[in-house]
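Quick note —
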Amino acid sequence: MWRNMGSEQRRLRRTGEDATNLVIDYVKQETVEPVRSLGRFVAYGLAGSVFLSIGLVLLLLSLLRALQEETGAFNGNLSWLPYLIVVLVALAIAALAGYRISAGPAKRRRSTKEGSR
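Predicted structure written out below.
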């Protein structure tokens, strides 16, 4: 009788350990792995945005230098005009980016949430 009691306790303990291990594995699967993949996604997105920003600054600078040096129209009192043109181009790029961000998946998600109310 005592012998069976020991095996029952061992089996119960083993079942409890299995359940604990199952819960720990499930929590790792549902929290740690998605956070790792989200970290990779954020890292690539951040690196891409940094490189894109550097590229756009260099392109705008090259536009400014081309307007100043290659065209003869902006001499004397009009020397400020290339700066204004480059600022307007930069604002247009920023507006286009903002429009695309708001018109993309975010707008579709917003419209489905508003429609379900």
